[in-house]
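[job 4471] stage=fold_predict status=RUNNING
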Amino acid sequence: MAENLGNTQIDFIWKGKNKQGKVITGELSTLNENVAKAELHRRGIRIISIKKKPKALFTKATQAITTKDIAIFARQLATMLNAGVPLVQSFDIVGKGHDNPSMAELLLTVKSDIEGGDTLAQALGKHPIYFDELFCNLVDAGEQAGVLETLLDKIATYKEKSESIKAKVKKALTYPIAVIVVAFVVTAILLIFVVPVFKDLFDSFGADLPSFTLWVMGLSDWMVAYWYYIVGGVMITVYTFSYFKKRSKEFNYFLDRLMLKIPIVGIILHKSAIARFARTLSTMSAAGVPLVEALESVAGATGNIVYYNAVMQMRDEIATGQRLQYAMVQTQLFPHMVVQMLAIGEESGSIDKMLDKVADFYEEEVDNLVDNLSSLMEPFIMCILGVLVGGLIVAMYLPIFKLGAAVG
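[job 4471] inference complete, writing structure tokens
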């Protein structure tokens, strides 16, 4: 009888001995037991026992693996290797001690691949969703040069800096948008549920109402009558935006160009892209990765299609013999200071150190700009809240003040 139908994966728990004769255990997901045994034999593991993993009565929701998890893993592994802990044992310690079950499972899978004879770069390369080409290239360079712990330390620093700058940019964009959305939701609730109550009250008085109050009541009537069109329109807009954001390169290019032109926010995005460019290229240069090969990974790390295209253009020009500083000038995206510091780094043979200084400078610039933006946005947001919510309150209380004056 077949053990599975179709392509359903089955989880197996196995126990065996590796090439050094050490007893090891692990888990494996395959189509059936024969495939699982073949895979373990391919890894050089002599099987002692293998059985299906029993299904849990209550399954927990899968916790997503974030880029922050990868950054923490890189730092932990670098620390373990610097302390002299063997690679496999380091994975065992980090994996079993991780708070995220999904990350722990991923690390133990990588550990099994390493025990099966894969290099660390090969084992990580089997999971491109979590370990990108940049990560794997740097690990491979570290393994070949015999300085894996040094390169992992650089990767950890790079990941931590990248996550920090991403968080700052996200904060700059998310905070004002979230507050404004909440303000409009509150306004809609007042127009749909609160204003009609006042409207019935004023109709019972039969008095003339101020023009502003009449306009707000008309807006309320329209919202009550057509709220489902508004909700539908918002949902269609969000879906359409998400659809084209995921599938249309032209739309993303237009969106990234537009974002770069927004006052203050555009400056933050420009500086963060330059910081990422400098930090990534510095890390790859320190690892000895050839410039043309490095720039492809650097392009993807900038986080903006405009800068991605510019870096890929630089790569093509450098491949034909052009110097890096001249290729940067041609893009018209990089400030004069960055180009000059890079030129000095090329001439002195310390391009990675110069790029580190550029990255530090622009990361600090982004930090200051985000703090300034938050300070500037607070009074702006208060004005919006005051106009929306305060305007509705004034509109509803104007007739009451008018009636009070008439009675007096």
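[job 4471] summary: The two ends are 94 Å apart (CA to CA).
[job 4471] exit 0
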